């Protein structure tokens, strides 16, 4: 979703699965899943001959456009070479200092598991001499060009399941290792999305096909090994994943659409019994489940107001009619995650741009609210396999602050900042939080960063970030390039527009389907306020977006191009209408809850057409645009981006020819097509090159 300057060791290990998104965002909806078919539009079904001709014509068009853009990039890339090189060297230098805390670790009793450079190691918690055993190596076992995505250790630590993923594929492979003095590869399962151990030798996993997960399987590693199908989701709008409760009492099968969910329980004491339903799916109600002392703790949107609440019910009678309120999240507050422990529960919250903890004690029946440092913008949660621990660990970060580790002690009832080696770079960064008044008077948050030593801010370059879809927050974790920009005098602004999730579930609802244009109005209001307050000016302003963020960024270029000078887009979604008209694509039906169904509703079709970036390109003066796209991107297909660039360039050149005069400015419309990498994952080196090219382009355009 975002520019990905980060170390490989952070990029490749997800010890706790989708902890950050499992609770507050339905799994499977974290990214705008896209697939492309080159069949042409039309209400009539063409004959086979016409259909084949259409496909051949589309393929030929694709090849011609691809070749043309590759030649164009080869012709102009030299002008950015020197600056790209300088930026890369600076980022590499910052990178050496920014990540010195090592890889995330998984602790089981005295054993500590961690990953580095494609290997999984085992060490002892009290070993100060650095003795480690190697349990797994991608290179030694013949897995090339892959990274480790997720690790799960069986309860008795006899088995380890690892998912391997390449940077050019959406599918992952699960490798099961039998541990011991000489670890042995026991089994390899292809096309796996999520997996959890139900017992010491029973593994549940979901299979992924065409970007969808709808089947759950169980495989055993007992003397009589077998695999069987356990659950199948029939509704194409729903995506299935697995989670194990913190006390390992239940494995949950979670089936979620973007607005509705349903959970089934697998009893880990009886893993061969059929899953039990918690509560049948109810339209508009999302819920996720934890367990403690024979009670289910249910994080849900059920009831009014439609924000998240923590409720509980007995395992034996888990229906909605028995749910009792434990804690309700305040209005305009984003629930980031929940961590359950034996006697406590911690809620990680965002409110008005600030981060909080709410600590619920099941012993004293009290709730304590803890405000975290004001510089912090993002949580990075750590894995806590042992729910009986007395300490919860997490990291805090911001775009310009490397992660700092904190611990909350339940026994001492306080927050502890762990001492770390200081990053030997001077930030002098000031953080400002603003509110812009949108067209309908709604106040929209903006987070601004700039160097405290900067003078004449109206002359400084400004880089604005936007997303505004799927209820997902703008990514505000640390990036070396953001720190570099601050040091070089840039201003960074993050516009938390409607459609995102920064102010809770309602903030998302107010920016999806028939409310999509509200996000566009919010973005315009944010940019205008920044300029009014003296943060840069249009000729020094650039806009950055990725994936579904391309909808609002592209729309703003059509409606208010004079507000910005340049724009950088990464794998942008720029043709909503044509995509949502293709119901034969595997994920279009799922996306209807975000964008609407233009085939079933003419009003919806007209509404999407009114803001869709591709549909609204016109002859006018556009800002310069740099787009990075990927040949093998299944979510944002290259053909759509190629056609968008072609149409945009033609409109800009047409305007220039009609208003030709000496010194007339002609925007640069550039498409950089990457043969490697994908929508979600790129190697460290590919990410570094990509970000450096973006920044070189912006430096040239903003002079």
UniProtKB/TrEMBL annotation:
<comment type="similarity">
    <text>Belongs to the peptidase S9A family.</text>
</comment>
<dbReference type="GO" id="GO:0005794">
    <property type="term" value="C:Golgi apparatus"/>
</dbReference>
<dbReference type="GO" id="GO:0005856">
    <property type="term" value="C:cytoskeleton"/>
</dbReference>
<dbReference type="InterPro" id="IPR051543">
    <property type="entry name" value="Serine_Peptidase_S9A"/>
</dbReference>
<keyword id="KW-0963">Cytoplasm</keyword>
<dbReference type="Pfam" id="PF02897">
    <property type="entry name" value="Peptidase_S9_N"/>
</dbReference>
<dbReference type="GO" id="GO:0006508">
    <property type="term" value="P:proteolysis"/>
</dbReference>
<protein>
    <recommendedName>
        <fullName>Prolyl endopeptidase</fullName>
        <ecNumber>3.4.21.-</ecNumber>
    </recommendedName>
</protein>
<feature type="domain" description="Peptidase S9 prolyl oligopeptidase catalytic">
    <location>
        <begin position="477"/>
        <end position="702"/>
    </location>
</feature>
<dbReference type="InterPro" id="IPR023302">
    <property type="entry name" value="Pept_S9A_N"/>
</dbReference>
<dbReference type="InterPro" id="IPR001375">
    <property type="entry name" value="Peptidase_S9_cat"/>
</dbReference>
<feature type="domain" description="Peptidase S9A N-terminal">
    <location>
        <begin position="66"/>
        <end position="414"/>
    </location>
</feature>
<dbReference type="InterPro" id="IPR002470">
    <property type="entry name" value="Peptidase_S9A"/>
</dbReference>
<keyword id="KW-0720">Serine protease</keyword>
<dbReference type="InterPro" id="IPR029058">
    <property type="entry name" value="AB_hydrolase_fold"/>
</dbReference>
<keyword id="KW-0645">Protease</keyword>
<comment type="function">
    <text>Serine peptidase whose precise substrate specificity remains unclear. Does not cleave peptides after a arginine or lysine residue. Regulates trans-Golgi network morphology and sorting by regulating the membrane binding of the AP-1 complex. May play a role in the regulation of synaptic vesicle exocytosis.</text>
</comment>
<dbReference type="GO" id="GO:0004252">
    <property type="term" value="F:serine-type endopeptidase activity"/>
</dbReference>
<dbReference type="GO" id="GO:0005829">
    <property type="term" value="C:cytosol"/>
</dbReference>
<dbReference type="Pfam" id="PF00326">
    <property type="entry name" value="Peptidase_S9"/>
</dbReference>
<keyword id="KW-0378">Hydrolase</keyword>
């Amino acid at each position: 979703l975002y520019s990905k300057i980060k170390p490989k060791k952070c990029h490749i290990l997800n010890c706790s699965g989708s902890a950050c998104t499992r609770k507050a965002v339905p799994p499977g909806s974290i990214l705008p899943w896209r697939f492309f078919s080159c069949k042409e539009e039309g209400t009539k079904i063409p004959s086979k001959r016409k259909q084949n001709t259409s496909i051949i014509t589309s393929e030929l068009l694709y090849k011609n456009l691809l070749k043309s853009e590759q030649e164009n990039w080869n012709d102009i890339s030299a002008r950015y070479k020197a600056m790209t090189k300088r930026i890369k060297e600076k980022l590499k230098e910052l990178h050496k200092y920014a990540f010195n805390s090592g890889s995330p670790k998984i602790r089981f009793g005295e054993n500590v598991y961690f990953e580095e450079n494609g290997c999984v190691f085992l060490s002892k918690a009290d070993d100060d001499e650095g003795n480690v055993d190697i349990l797994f190596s991608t290179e030694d076992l013949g897995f090339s060009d892959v990274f480790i995505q997720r690790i799960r250790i069986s309860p008795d630590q006899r088995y380890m399941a690892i998912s391997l993923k390449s940077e050019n594929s959406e599918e992952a492979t699960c490798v099961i290792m039998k541990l011991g003095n000489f670890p042995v590869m026991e089994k390899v399962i292809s096309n796996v999305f999520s997996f959890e151990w139900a017992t010491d030798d029973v593994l549940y996993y979901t299979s992924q096909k065409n970007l969808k997960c709808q089947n759950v399987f169980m495989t055993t590693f007992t003397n009589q090994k077998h695999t069987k199908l356990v659950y199948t989701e029939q509704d194409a709008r729903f995506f299935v994943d697995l989670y194990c409760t913190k006390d390992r009492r239940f494995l949950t099968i979670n089936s979620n659409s973007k607005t509705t969910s349903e959970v089934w329980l697998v009893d880990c004491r009886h893993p061969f019994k059929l899953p039990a339903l918690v509560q049948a799916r109810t339209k508009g109600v999302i819920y996720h489940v934890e367990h403690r002392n024979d009670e289910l703790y249910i994080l849900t949107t059920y009831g009014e107001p439609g924000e998240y609440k923590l409720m509980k019910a007995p395992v034996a009678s888990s229906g909605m009619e028995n749910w009792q309120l434990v804690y309700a999240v305040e209005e305009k507050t984003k629930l980031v995650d929940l961590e359950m422990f034996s006697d406590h529960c911690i809620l990680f919250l965002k409110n008005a741009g600030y981060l909080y903890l709410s600590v619920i004690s099941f012993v004293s029946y009290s709730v304590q609210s803890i405000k975290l440092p004001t510089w912090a913008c993002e949580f990075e949660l750590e894995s806590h396999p042992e729910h009986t621990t007395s300490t919860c660990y997490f990291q805090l970060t911001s775009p310009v602050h490397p992660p700092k580790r904190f611990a909350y002690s339940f026994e001492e009832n306080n927050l502890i900042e762990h001492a770390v080696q200081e990053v030997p770079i001077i930030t002098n960064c000031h953080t400002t939080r603003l509110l812009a008044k949108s067209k309908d008077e709604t106040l929209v948050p903006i987070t601004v960063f700039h160097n405290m030593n900067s003078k004449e801010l109206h002359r400084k370059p400004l880089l604005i970030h936007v997303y505004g879809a799927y209820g997902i927050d703008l990514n505000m974790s640390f990036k070396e390039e953001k720190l570099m920009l601050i040091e070089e005098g840039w201003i960074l602004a993050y516009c938390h527009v409607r459609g995102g999730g920064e102010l809770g579930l309602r903030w998302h609802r107010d920016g999806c389907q028939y409310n999509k244009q509200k996000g566009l109005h919010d973005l315009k209001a944010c940019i205008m306020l920044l300029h009014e307050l003296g943060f840069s000016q249009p000729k020094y302003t650039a806009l950055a977006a990725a994936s579904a963020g391309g909808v609002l960024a592209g729309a703003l270029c059509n409606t208010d191009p004079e507000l910005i000078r340049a724009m950088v887009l990464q794998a942008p979604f720029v043709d909503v209408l044509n995509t949502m008209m293709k119901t034969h694509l595997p994920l279009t039906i799922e996306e209807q809850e975000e964008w609407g169904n233009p085939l079933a509703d003419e009003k919806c079709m007209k509404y999407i057409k009114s803001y869709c970036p591709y549909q609204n390109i016109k002859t006018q003066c556009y800002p310069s645009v740099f787009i990075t796209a990927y040949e093998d991107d299944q979510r944002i297909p290259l053909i759509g981006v190629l056609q968008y660039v072609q149409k945009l360039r033609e409109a800009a050149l047409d305007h220039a020819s009609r208003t030709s005069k000496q010194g007339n400015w002609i925007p640069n419309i550039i498409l950089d097509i990457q043969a490697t990498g994908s929508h979600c994952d790129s190697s460290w080196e590919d990410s570094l090159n990509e970000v450096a090219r973006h920044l070189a382009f912006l430096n040239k355009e903003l002079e």
